[in-house]
Amino acid sequence: MNVKNLFIYDVDEYKKFINLINNVFKTSVDLPENIFRDCYNNFLFEEFDWTMTEEFSEKLKQLTKETNDPFVLTAVIEPDPFDYYLNEFGYFNWFKIPTDELGKYYLEALMHYPEESVADSILYNSQKIVWIVPSAKWAIWGDRSYEICIFGCQVGYQIKNAHTLKTWETVENALEFWIKLSFKDQIISKDFRQQMIYNYKK
C-alpha cells in the first residue's frame, strides 16, 4: 500500500469526518476546559510523545477491534487542516488506516511529509491531534503543548479488556507527570489544577 493513499484528499470526505469529530470534541476549547462533549467520560491520560510510537498503534488496534471499527482516523486539528495544510500541500494532514494494518503503516504515515516541506510531517507538526473511530465509542485528544493525550469513551460504554489501558493515568497523575512540565518552573496555578481535576475526574 502506498502511504499517500491513506491521507484524505477529498473535501467532502473531510467534511464528513469533521462532523464526526465535532460530535465528540469541542475543538475550539483549550485545557483546562473539558475538550470532550458531555456524553463522554472515564477519562485517562498518557504522554503525548507516546502517541508517535509503534506501541501506541498496537493499543489503537486493540481498542478498534473491541468496537469492531474498520479503521482509525488520525486527524490534526492544529495546524489547521483546511486553511493551512490543504491550501499549502493539496491534501489534509489526516489519515485513516484499516484496523488490521495499523501496526504496519501508522509510523510511516506519521513520518510522511509533503514534497515541499519535510517539517510538515504529522510527526513533527501536530500541536493538537485526535484519534477517532467511526462508531465514536471512544476517542483520544492529543495536545503537544501540555505533553498529554486524553482518552474518553461514550457514557455507558466500557472497554472490556482493562489491560489495554493499563499504562494510562488519572488526571491527578497527569498533572504531576507531564502537564506541569509545560509551566514555568513546573508550577501549575491552583485554578488550572482545580479545573482540570473537576473536568476530567469522571
UniProtKB/TrEMBL annotation:
This is Uncharacterized protein. It comes from Acetivibrio saccincola.
